[in-house]
């Protein structure tokens, strides 16, 4: 199975590749000053034009971690698959819609996401979780707040624009969740206030003024390999859907290197001792619980020194060795593309007001014909690429530590 990606899902954000200098009109500080000017205007209509010297502002509302989205079908054929889009609205429209709910939009509510110099546009996010009545309308376009994980599965990974929108949504969710978690100073307990257009916060206590920056939660994820018997160790958690297996993973502890974390987690979860650890790639992962705003998955190949499995039942439901042949067969028959199209169609139904509230999690992997004994997370997950790289081609066996040698297959040709 060959899947071409320019970057992992949630990586490759097209509006934050470079931060403009402070004096640039699209920089966080300049855009924030212009934002305050916009908000001071008294909009009696929904479409007041911005001042000529100001960039265009677009806002992405979120409700309880779900970005606003719409869906459309570009073709006229019955078998055309819908595609989702982020529900950007103009700043005047955002102020108008919130005003209808009795809420004044302030500069402290908006978080700077990035900009596009070529379009003279600055992008912002706003959390409207407290306004259950707010569902913007725009002509014939219908909007809906959709779980980020659902959008992840529904994204066509061959579409670079769609992948870029997914990365923007992931970045925005991580920032907004962090803002919700950091409302009070951890040092003195006073309220915090946004600074640098929401890119950091600061304690409001004049005697404290502690600076608080967005958190990143690093996680090691590893495919443990038995070189001698040409097989890999895969685990199952109790929350997994039936027949799904994946790589082992765990959070890095303070004072621990990446390599040490790989070895410790593997031994704790499966009782396997690991020697060599070789870096593969990393992936932002903003679809976890709101208490962990943004995980960074750091992927490795880990080579086993022992082979007897001793599963920690509090961590895993099961762990087993699987041959390369069995893994390759499972990859070949799993219809990941069909699952993506199915979920995209469900997002379209949700935006039209159909099947709201229905869980989509059980649909993300669909096999044709007879059910295979196992399958793996889809191409949106780094686990998939660790597994498929090992199954379909040789990986380095002479790396000494993480970062010393990267697999010959970059993510662009997995």
Report on the structure:
By secondary structure, this protein is of the alpha+beta class. The protein folds into 3 domains: 28-176, Nucleoside Triphosphate Pyrophosphohydrolase, CATH 3.90.79; 183-215, no CATH class; 217-355 and 374-392, Nucleoside Triphosphate Pyrophosphohydrolase (Alpha-Beta Complex). The chain has 8 helices and 18 strands. The chain has helices at residues 28-40, 91-100, 148-154, 160-181, 258-270, 324-333, 336-351, 382-392, and strands at 56-63, 66-72, 83-86, 89-90, 110-116, 121-127, 144-145, 192-195, 200-203, 211-212, 217-226, 231-236, 248-251, 274-285, 295-304, 318-323, 334-335, 366-367. The strands form 4 sheets. Strands 1, 2, 3, 4, 5, 6 and 7 form a 7-stranded mixed sheet that branches. Strands 11, 12, 13, 14, 15 and 16 form a 6-stranded mixed sheet that branches. A hairpin with a 4-residue loop joins strand 8 (192-195) and strand 9. Pfam families: NUDIX, NUDIX-like, Zn_ribbon_NUD. Its cofactor is Mg(2+); Zn(2+). Its EC number is 3.6.1.22. Residues 214-344 form the Nudix hydrolase domain.
